[in-house]
Write a structure and sequence with these properties.
Elements lengths: L1 H15 L27 E3 L16 E7 L4 E6 L4 E6 L11 E3 L10 E7 L2 E8 L2 E7 L3 E6 L6 E9 L2 E9 L11 E5 L3 E11 L2 E11 L11 E8 L5 E5 L3 E6 L5 E6 L7 E4 L5 E3 L10 E6 L5 E8 L10 E8 L4 E6 L4 H4 L3 E11 L2 E8 L5 E7 L5 E7 L1 E7 L1
Antiparallel strand pairs: 1-20, 2-3, 2-29, 3-4, 5-6, 6-7, 7-8, 9-10, 10-11, 11-12, 13-14, 14-15, 15-16, 17-18, 18-19, 19-20, 21-22, 22-23, 23-24, 25-26, 26-27, 27-28
Length: 407
Amino acid sequence: MVKLKRLFLGLALLSFSLLACSLPLPLSVSPTPVTTEPSLPPATATSPAPISTTPPMEIDFLPSGFVVTDGSSTLFFYNADGSLVRTISIGSDSYVGRYSIHVAGGTTSGIPPVVYFLWRGSDPVLIENNGGIETLLMYQPELFRLAGAPGTPYFAYTTASYTDTGLRTRMYFGTPDTIASAAPVLDLVDAEGFALKPLAFRVEGGTPTGIYYTGCLYGIGSELVFDPCSRLRLLNLTTGAVTEILGDGYNPSSISPDGVWLAYAANGGGQPLQIRNLVTGAERTFTPWLYNERGSGEAVFSPDGRYVAWIEARGSTMDEPVTFQTNLRIAETEGSMDAQYLDDVFEPDVGFQVLSAMPVGWLDNDTLLVQVSGFNQGESVILRLELAAEPQVAYLTPGYFLALTYR
C-alpha cells in the first residue's frame, strides 16, 4: 500500500499534476538561505546547427501573476506580488491540471475568461468561465492536452482515440467563440501510440501563426518523472506546412517567451539538458548532475531569455525507503551555471518532508516560482525564489500551479 501511494505521488506531482485537496492559507514569508554550488561546470557549446527560419515570438510583457488550484473545486488568482486577487469556484469532483487550462486574455481589466477541461460527474466537458459564470463549449471525451498563447484568447487542444490501425490523434485551434466548430488543423494516425501535444505558439501581430507540438505516449503507466514525449515540430497555421525541429528520441521542455530558445533533453537516465537558439542554430549542453539517473526536463525560461531553470532526478519512489530526489538547477543561456537546489533544502520553508521541487514559471527576469510537493496528499506549496547575491525564498501559497497570467 505504501509503495502504491508513493508511485501515485511520483506520477501526480512530477508528470501530470494529478491534484489533491489543499486549501490556501494566509500569505506568509519565511526567507531561508539557499545553498549554491559555485564550482558547477559550465555548459559546452557545439557547432551551430542549421539556422532556423522561425522568427522570434512577439511578446512584450511580463507575467502579471499566476493561478493555482486546491485540487478540485477552486481556482485561485494571485498577482505578481503573491497577493490573492480572486477565487473562482469550478464545483467539480474532477480536477483541472496544467495541461487542461488556458487563461484566455490579459488581466489589465480584471480576470479574463478561463477555459478548462474537466470531468463533471460522467460528463467530459470543455468550459469557459467568465467572472464565475460558466459556458459549456463542448463535450469532448477524447481530450488529451490543452495549451494557449499567453495573454490571448487563442488556444489549441488535442484528442486521442484508438483505431484498428493505430492511435488517431487530432489538433484543434481557435478561441472560446470558435473552438466548438473548428476543424482539426492536424489529423494523424500513429502506429506507435504517440498523441499530439501543443507545446508553444509562434505569435505575430498578436495572433498565433504557428504551433510548436510534440508527441507523447498515450495510455501508459509507470513511475514517470517527465511527460514521455518525443520530437518537436512547427505547424504553420497559414500554409499548413510542418517543419521538424527535433527528431525522434528528444523530449522538448519549453520555448522561451521571446521564441529564441528551445530547451530539450534526450530521453533516458543521465541525459543532460540542452538548449538551442532557434534563430542562430547554436546549441549548448549543460553538464548533468553527477547523480542524474532519471534524465532532465521541466525547463522554463525567464521572460528575457537570460536564465533557464529545470530539474534532474535520481532514485525511485518505489524503493523502501524512498530514494527519489530532484535537483532544481538554474543556468544562464549563454552557458554559465548559476546554482542548484536539492529538494530537501526547501523543507524549512514548507514544513513537511519534501518529495520534489520543480520550477513552474518566472514572474520576472529574476524571480522563479517553485512548486514543492511532499509525500502526502495535499502537501504542495508554491514558493518564490528570488535570484540575487544571496538568493531568497518566500512562501506564497499552498496549492498546485496551473498557469501564469499576463497583462
